[in-house]
Amino acid sequence: MHELNDFRKGLRVMVEGNPYSVVDFQHVKPGKGNQFTRCKLRNLLTGQLLERTFKSGERFEVPNVEFRDVTFLFKDDNGYTFMDKTSYEQLTLGEAEVGENKNYLMENLESQMMIYNDRPVGIQVPNAVNLRIVQTDPGFKGNTVTNTFKAATLETGYVIQVPLHMKEGDLIRIDTRTGEYVERVNS
Questions:
Q1: Which of 43, 101, 119, 154 is the S-S candidate for 131 at Cβ 3.0 to 4.6 Å?
Q2: Does domain 65-124 bear CATH number 2.40.50.140?
Q3: CATH code for 128-185?
Q4: pTM, 2 dp
């Protein structure tokens, strides 16, 4: 059983008999009355977002989700295709099930697929991935008193903010939980 105090991004809970994943949450402690939590939840089966408010003390069942080690193969018109590393079976997920993780998927990326009642419902990528910058404006000297950033397009098409000294061809590490630049990686 999960309680509201356990909530964090990516936590899976059962709400009204359906499995959900916590997308965002905010604990609220008003001056009067009991505290509560506003949540954005994504249905693992349909991909729909649900916004709910829960009172403190509510408990939630843990959905029966299993994880399989998979390798990302390719993306085509049918969706994102992964290979199960134990059975070599190919599994395909749609864009709604992959969600924001599509920004980090490179060929041969090892990740974990969430399976609920023998049905693939989502993907969990590693906490950090290394991607190459394919397009960015050149850096300029000058205003470096504060941390300044510029936009850079990565090899997956994802646009991220990076420090001014970064250039095309640089390999960088990205935190997949926040979608932010972490550091430059020596290739």
A1: 154
A2: yes
A3: 2.40.50.140
A4: 0.74
